[in-house]
Amino acid sequence: MLIVGFFLLVTIFMVSASGFWRLLRNNNIAFVSLDIGHQFGLLKPLDLVEEVKKELESKRLTKIEVIKDTFDLVLTFTHGLKLEIYIASTGYETYDFSINGKRYIGLGSGDIAIMDSH
Questions:
Q1: What does the pLDDT read at residue 57?
Q2: How confident is the model at residue 117 (pLDDT cuts 50, 70, 90)?
Q3: Which residues, 6+ apart, have CB-to-CB distance to 74 below 8 Å?
Q4: Per-residue pLDDT, 83
Q5: What is the pLDDT of residues 65-108, one digit of tens each?
Q6: Torsion angle, CA of 92/96/102/107, rounded to 10 degrees?
Q7: Nearest to residue 69, comparing CAs of 86, 84, 54, 53?
Q8: Considering the chain, what percentage of its residues have pLDDT values greater than 70?
Q9: How far apart are CA 50 and CA 42, in angstroms?
Q10: What is the pLDDT of residue 51?
Q11: How far apart (Å, rounded) are the C-alpha atoms in residues 116 and 98?
């Protein structure tokens, strides 16, 4: 199983993801989780954690959307950036985010658990 973890701190917001995700820039695919470690003609293999951190640095989170039925997660940021995290397992958690004292966990089979993060 490919696991890519990254953490993003925006005010009091934190997200981690394992499985399939992609970052869109102006509705075009900028990075996809499956590209981690590939070189693609670059000088060194792609470090997605660093690349995503650079892209999202100083950007403001403007919208959190959990898609009805599938519970995929879409985070919208300023400067035309979107991070899409897909439920990628029927049995394992795919994402976990916390905001305003609540923790949201994207469960397998398209469900979400919500609990106090205290």
A1: 83
A2: confident
A3: 63, 64, 65, 66, 67, 82, 83, 84, 85
A4: 93
A5: 888 888 888 999 999 999 999 888 888 888 888 877 888 888 88
A6: -20
A7: 86
A8: 87
A9: 15
A10: 86
A11: 9
Q: State the DSSP H helix or E strand holding residue 56, giving kind and residue range, or none if neither.
A: helix 48-56
Give the residues across from 116 on adjacent strands: 102
The answer to whether residue 37 scores a pLDDT higher than 80 is: no
Which of helix, strand or coil describes residue 115?
A: strand
| Amino acid, single-letter form, for residue 73 | L
Domain boundaries, the chain: 14-116
Residue where the block lists tokens 């696991």 = 3
Look up residue 95 and give its two tokens.
């994402």
**Measured distance CA(101)–CA(99) in Å, rounded:** 6
β-bridge mates for residue 21, sequence order: 85
Q: d(Cα 34, Cα 102) in Å, to the nearest integer?
A: 29
Give CA–CA dist 2/78, Å, rounded: 28
